[in-house]
Amino acid sequence: MKNKRILIIGIVINIVLLLAFLIGTSFITKEKLKEKVNSLDVEVDITNDGTILVTEDWDIEFLEETNEYYRNIYYHKLEATNPFIEADEVNNNIATFSTIPSTYEQKLFKDGKEINIEKGYSFNHDLDRDGNIIGGIDRVNLEVFYFKSEEVLLGNYQIKYKYKLEQFVTHYLDCNELSLLLIQEPIKIEKLNFSVNFPNPISKPFAYSNQELSSTFSENSLNASVTSFYSLDNDYFRLRVLFDKDSLAISNPNHMMSFNAFNELESYEARQQEINKTKDLLSVDQAKTKTAVYIINIVLVVLVILIMIITYLYFENIIFRPKVISKATSINESLLDSSLILDSFLKKRHFLGLIKKMELNGNIVRENNVLIYKNKDGLSVEETKILLGIFQKQKTVTLDKIDYLALKKKVIDKAEYEDKPQLILLNFLFIFIFYYIIIYRMKEKLALDLIWTKALIVVLFVTSLVFFILLRFKKRKKYKEVKAFKNYLEEAKLKDDVYLPYYISYGIIDFK
């Protein structure tokens, strides 16, 4: 019965671990979205001096209740990997965010109706709801728009932003460059539409992005779109447009570079596209790897449960039932040793069986529930110690005053087979604890060095399994003998008093 409980507990533990792993890794590998953008329309008007006027229309859905929102606006021109970032003359090629009130704006709408909001801006050193300076004090080439609403924001809204970036276009000897970092934090955007309006006639511009881009050009306007481009594995979106060098009248020398850039930038964008394709492939491989890890995990859990069930059926003689021996005298172990092999956690009945043996031997006399000490003749050393432990230097003792816990300790400390061949529950439990730790530690790099992880798990699994099976192998024979002996007693129903202590100790009959 005890083994059946251990089996059920072991199966439940493994299933719980499996569910915890599958559910836990889902939360680990996927950041919960607070909002998603159904569509984002961005219009950029380039003026003759290279300044740009940006208008953004956000169709946004708040997935959690809030009453505030931030919009980070980046206006640094060159990313860290840009081929010209180390050129001396680009150090002063810096745009300026216009803080003239008429050049910036933010509005919130619900179903076409404007909602009253309290607005804040980082360049005005405004404070947010918690009393912190919006955007912080260490920001570089960054301004933050902030608003809070009296009503709770949940569901679909429309946000309109307007801002001006002065001297944002860079002039090279062979082209002009518009490089706009639109987003640099994770957010889900379903569709993005981008339009760039040029002040003067130009030939067809060249548009690039770190996402797959489709674009058209007509009447001095470039229209680009990206559909379902953004995922939580990416962290920015930049648009670069190269167009005719003489189409603008840029006069600021800090924004006029004295070298050709078109070929370098085109090559740079081509390399970026290859990198993005590689990332996409890695993302696909990572998804496949995660699936493989899940499958491996499920298979291992199922395998453990099957092994536990087979082990239980085997040691309980439900399958491979040992042949019932015809002679009870083939059991060589003492009464307590044999009962200990049969049941690793000693119970009171084991000692009651031994007391019955002592009574039959004449070592003690029992009057109702009182034991009277007589002698220790014919007892083994172990049984003598138990006898002395029962009486504690007294001549009499009642059954309910016997310290069975102390007696159990005496037996367990000296017993060779105190651990019955069990279901190896703890062994597999430790294996899977290590397994979950490994996967958890690899949550961000699940596709890297996975072969070594697989090898480690397999080695750990097989080594532990073989080790503990071998450790218990020598106990199996004795356990099977004792189990067969118990089966024999149950079937033979022997009347001889010599077997009565075994009947009591094995729990076949009650102590009387």
Would you kindly provide a brief summary of this structure?
The protein is an alpha+beta fold and about 500 residues long. It is about 40% helix and about 25% strand.
How would you characterize this protein structure?
A hairpin with a 2-residue loop joins strand 16 and strand 17. With 512 residues, the chain is an alpha+beta fold. 38% of the residues lie in helices and 25% in strands. The strands form three sheets. Strands 1, 2, 3, 4, 5, 6, 7, 10, 11, 13 and 14 form an eleven-stranded mixed beta sheet that branches. It has two domains: 1-30 and 263-327 and 423-474; 31-260, Immunoglobulin-like. It has helices at residues 2-29, 262-315, 335-342, 348-361, 381-391, 404-414, 425-441, 450-492, 500-505, and strands at 35-46, 52-74, 96-97, 105-110, 113-115, 118-121, 142-166, 170-171, 176-183, 188-189, 191-197, 206-209, 214-218, 221-227, 237-243, 364-367, 370-373, 396-398.
How many domain regions? 2
Helix coverage percent: 25-40%
Strand content: 25-35%
Helix run count: 9
Elements, N to C (H/E): HEEEEEEEEEEEEEEEHHHEEHEHHHH
